[in-house]
């Protein structure tokens, strides 16, 4: 087998594995009955977004096992302001996609103004 064939084989195997991992939740969730509004699974997904945003804030504040000084790094201040605004939008709009795009745009604007 030539080197080019081996490279393509690795690329195709990686693509198949990536597709499999991303489609597995879709296949599993399509079999579940999510009509019941009191479902524990639905309540879990309601809070998952806020847990992820909290994790992002926590990882931004703590680096190397100690609390960072937010005043010393302007990028950190801009990032925390953006995450806080995105979190507020998530709470207000009860969605994920629009606040995500708004947060990315806000971060770009603030980082352009501040840095």
UniProtKB/TrEMBL annotation:
The keyword Membrane applies. Pfam families: AzlD. The chain crosses the membrane at residues 6-29, 41-62, 74-91. Keywords: Membrane, Transmembrane, Transmembrane helix. InterPro entries: Brnchd-chn_aa_trnsp_AzlD. This is Branched-chain amino acid transport protein (AzlD).
């Amino acid at each position: 087998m030539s080197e080019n064939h081996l490279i393509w084989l690795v690329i195709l195997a990686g693509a198949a594995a990536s597709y499999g991992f991303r489609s597995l939740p879709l296949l599993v969730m399509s079999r579940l009955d999510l009509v019941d509004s009191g479902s524990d699974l639905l309540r879990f997904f309601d809070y998952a977004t806020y847990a992820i945003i909290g994790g992002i804030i926590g990882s931004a504040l703590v680096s190397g096992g100690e609390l960072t000084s937010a005043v010393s790094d302007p990028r950190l201040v801009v990032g925390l302001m953006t995450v806080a605004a995105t979190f507020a939008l998530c709470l207000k709009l009860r969605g994920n996609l629009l606040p995500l795009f708004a947060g990315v745009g806000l971060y770009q604007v603030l980082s352009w103004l501040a840095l």
